[in-house]
Design brief:
The chain is α/β, with parallel strands linked by helices. The chain contains 15 helices and 12 strands. Strand 7 and strand 8 form a beta hairpin. Helix 5 packs across helix 6, helix 5 packs across helix 7 and helix 6 packs across helix 7. It starts with 8 loop residues before the first strand and ends in a 5-residue tail after the last helix.
Length: about 375
């Protein structure tokens, strides 16, 4: 393993969504992440090979209902730097793998807990998904067009931005503390908390009187005509983000609207409906490619709206190596980039039960006995 997190070992209790995303980020940047999956091993499906979130890990299957299986996991955690789990509050404790017990085994352990609602509070034990977590944080209410219902942003804001990415940051922060002090701790990462955190700038705008608690009428939510998407003549779309005066001026110049009275009051919302109507008509007169040729390279804050398939082949993304293929599966490359500690290229998930257990002192006979007893896969 190479990368800035080289030398760290993380135990990942298998789950879906934000926990695996956090562990993918840690593994992408050099941590040795061991994914512990539940028995039976037949749970693995051919579709797992295309699961991008599982890359760059080693894995083993363990019978977590067996005391011997729980003992294996405890042994893994004795020499690990961190553990990540994404179960409802109390599940790990009932399995005999709660933080108090594992921190008594290994006081330096960082115990990352990924949930929707958090470890406490009235909703803590309720079921939920991304859409529910961002609804409660006030985030979903802000997403959508004026006069329309809230629009879920796929599951990017709760699961991945406010969940997995915040957990990855929390793990690294606590791991730095543990390395400096020898003291481990629990990282309580809730998607409701994280999605609220992602709205920090919007809360600032609201406090300054610059944001209405109404969808689609504000500067960054599609209300402003100079910060929106527009359909082109060929059914494609382009994006404009010409907020600052210099970029807005460059946009008007490129469109031949510099002296047009409809566009002289950029920041006055009373003029936005007329401005947007004009832009809709103007942009529908050319194809997306024609707009690229006209607007690119002029500091307008412009980009074509690309599909996933198109994004892979765009010249900028190709130049950056923004997408890679692993075993024929196209996926985003690790990010961010490091000048002195670049990580190795990602690799597919690898089942390595014997190697993993040998790394914590289990000899071949002990591993064989566990396998024969159905404790490990």
């Amino acid at each position: 393993m190479t990368g800035p997190l080289q030398g760290l070992r993380i135990i990942e209790m298998a789950g879906i969504g934000p926990g695996p995303f956090a562990c993918m980020m840690l593994a992408d940047h050099g941590a040795d992440v061991i994914r512990v999956e539940r028995m039976p091993p037949g749970e693995r499906t051919p579709g797992d090979a295309a699961n991008v979130l599982l890359r760059s890990r080693r894995t083993l299957s363990v019978d977590m209902t067996s005391p011997d299986g729980v003992a294996v996991i405890r042994d893994l955690c004795r020499s690990a730097d961190g553990l990540v789990e994404g179960f409802r509050p109390g599940v790990m404790e009932r399995r005999g793998l709660g933080p108090d017990l594992l921190l008594s085994d290994n006081p330096k352990l960082v115990y990352g807990r990924m949930t929707g609602w958090g470890q406490d509070g009235p909703y803590a034990r309720e079921a939920g998904h991304d859409i529910n977590y961002i609804a409660l944080s006030g985030t979903l209410h802000a997403l959508g067009r004026a006069g329309d219902k809230p629009t879920p942003p796929i599951n990017l804001v709760g699961d991945f931005g406010g969940g997995g990415m915040v957990l990855a940051f929390g793990m690294v922060a606590a791991l730095l503390h543990a390395r400096a002090t020898g003291q481990g701790q629990v990282v309580d990462c809730a998607m409701t908390d994280g999605s609220a955190l992602l709205m920090s700038m919007i809360w600032s705008f609201r406090a300054q009187g610059m944001w209405q608690d109404q969808r689609g009428v504000n500067l960054l939510d599609g209300g402003a005509p100079f910060y929106d998407t527009y359909e082109t003549a060929d059914g494609g779309y382009i994006s404009l983000g010409s907020i600052e005066p210099v970029f807005y001026g460059n946009l008007l110049c490129a469109l031949g609207l510099t002296d047009d009275p409809d566009f002289t009051h950029q920041m006055d919302p009373a003029h936005w409906p007329r401005m947007k109507q004009r832009l809709v008509t103007i942009i529908r007169q050319r194809t997306r490619q024609e707009w690229c040729q006209l607007l690119e390279g002029h500091d307008i804050c412009f980009a074509p709206v690309l599909s996933m398939a198109e994004a892979v082949d765009h010249p900028h993304n190709r130049a950056r190596g923004a997408f890679i293929a692993i075993d024929g599966v196209t996926q985003p490359a690790p990010a961010p980039r490091f000048s002195h500690t670049p990580p190795a290229p990602p690799r597919p998930l690898q089942s390595q039960a014997s190697t993993i257990l040998a790394g914590i002192g289990y000899d071949d006979a002990r591993v064989a006995a566990l396998r024969d007893a159905g404790i490990i896969g």
